[in-house]
Protein 1
Amino acid sequence: MKTASKARLSHKPIKGCIGTHIFNGKQDLLSGEFAGEIRDLLEQRGVLVFPAIQFTDAEQIAFTQTLGTFAPEASDGQGITKITLDVKENPAGAEFLKGSLYWHIDGTRNESPILASLLSCKVPATWGGNTGFCNTYAAYEALSAADKERYETLRVVHAPWASLLYYDPEPSLARLSAMQAIGEKELPLVWKHRSGRKSLILGCTSQHVIGVTPAQSAQIIIGLREWATSEPFSYSHRWHAGDLVIWDNTGTMHRAEAYDPACGRMMHRTKLEGEEPFE
């Protein structure tokens, strides 16, 4: 008598340093059987793509819960946040999402940033609208020994108001003051993870490097961003309705790529609570 073969996680790398496609169906994923393997792949690859999985909101929440501690969001009372520039659908957050067009890590003001975000495409953009990702583990690991030593002890002030100047370079004083009231946080440039690996903490919230001149600070922040987002470490996902993408917020940066703000692009997001502080 033949025994049933154990299901396996079906996956294939997208690029050398970043990204993996996962091809299992809903039943496999919702069972939680592969949660450990998926978590391992997420840390190794930074970004996992589930093409055309077509999760409902309830299924997306259930899948998120298999992977760690679910971080509910309050936009509709169901733990799903609508990511859209449509002010009718997202009256409070549409303006804030302008900052998402620039490379960033979520939660740089939190003690423990979220572990990961899961994003489902409901309505793709009519043009553009990809999401770009870069692997900040791989970018750090590929630095020269001299650069690793140079950056090892540097610290950076991160502030939401720094990101405001990317999309509104001449804000009113009132708008700047409102953003500055959110606060700032000092973080290491190199995050020494519990696993022993190291990654770079960068992005549009990086206001300045402590202990160097403004010119040197800009050279470090922009130079490392350019390095980390270069072709070997980056991946741009072209969305199709029904796709789900997970990214490791502790070892990647991400950004939305330009699209028609009136096109109705709609994404549904869930999150996993953070498990490791920056320090």
Protein 2
Amino acid sequence: MPFTVTQPAVAAVGNNSADVMAIANSPVMWICAGGVFLVIIVQSLIYMKAARLAAPSVGMTPGELKTSFRAGAISAIGPSLAVVLVAVALLTVFGTPSVLVRIGLIGSVSYETGAAAIAANTAGAELGGPTYTQSVFGLALAAMSLGGAMWMLATLIFTPLLKRGDSKLRQVNPAVMMIVPGAALLGAFSVLSFAEFPKSPVHIVAFASSAAIMALLLLLAKRTGATWIKEWALGIAILLGLTITYFVSAA
């Protein structure tokens, strides 16, 4: 059903400049993106310092702490590659600063593009199309940013509440809280993975190949005792999964 605001919005958009990149890559946008990067760098340094201070109290040695930092950094390579592949394709739509902040650092690719597309459609425009103007870009960016802000607000509100529930469950049965986080992660990733199956056989190939490679790498790490395999497993599984999927789709 068409929106009643479509025609007025198109008229307004038609009087706006179609040179979206003039504002998408403007110095102001780069300054804002730089500010976000600065905040994240400072936060990372604070958390790393806090981890070093807390390590002795939980029995972690400096070597174990260093290994955990290295494992986290290496494990981030795989998911980052998947995001980069999509982000490169969106540079011509949102500009480099917006892609770096919204997709590269804060939000998810599926959410950000979906929110931007819905916002553009309400204005009677299409992302990257002839009706995609500066005003539509501003509308899309606002939709993505407000959605991300609500995520952060929800986390701020619900984290203390969930912490109380965690404390009560630990008092009743400490073993439960050893199972619940793992089950929650498994359920979340399962939902995200199985949601891709109906899209195409290629999506199934991507899931099956990466899952099989991950299982083999973990088995190999267990058999050989090579801890570095566990650290690199996620990145290797994603990279090889993408490679296999590419050749299958091209066949």
Protein 3
Amino acid sequence: MRNPIPALFLPLVLVACAAPTQPGSAATPAVAAEQEPAMAKPSALQAALILSGHHWRLSDARDAAGKRIDALFARAAKPLQLDFNASMLSIINGCNSMSAHHVLAGDSLTVDPLASTMMACQDQALMALDREIGKRLQGGLAMRIDEGDAPTLVLTNAAGDVLTFRGEMTAETRYGGPGERVFLEVAAATKPCSHPLIPAKQCLQVRELRYDDKGLQVGAPGEFQNFLEDIQGYEHRDGVRNVLRVDRYTRKDVPADASKYAYVLDMVVETDASGK
């Protein structure tokens, strides 16, 4: 007959035979790493599509010491914006428009020296904004894209400045393709109009204009009509007539109270404040 295990050794035996770690309990770093795989980074093609499919507006900027770079936030209502295509980077909402050739490779973005228009702004804060972004957004930049409904782009330069941009879909991305370029004349005064959801709505008075390939107006414009839609990017001032160049997109999912078209301002071609 075998001797029983002495009571003195029972605690040691019980510890040695303890049950394996249960789910939810602490795990070794190696095991934890296996259980929580790192988020996949977008491929080079995905990154290029994400960059070109969004407008990127500056939301934060810090130097290497973590101090906010206030000079880059000269206009709170119009933050600095980056726009990408396959090879060019454009910067708007400063004093001047700037652009540069760029190369995307893995987790890096290389930006050539910026070319700029040469307009002198009376607002010295905007002039300083141009200088500051010009020296911070060039050369080799470490890049991180965080995807999601509101993606972010984080760029870090060699000096350690960290610039964070929030993405907003371009109209082409939102509406699934390029728009049709049209010219609209907007009368100086709005008029009351009927809208199923907006009582006492004031409608823009709009008519379409046509131009030939030399930029000369052709044909007689029709009568002004109630325009129930908004023109994205356009803010009407009573008493001011404008000619707008807009991109017209066909909506895939049309709300019950809306037109099948969406209109996005490209530029104001002509302004007349005479009230006529």
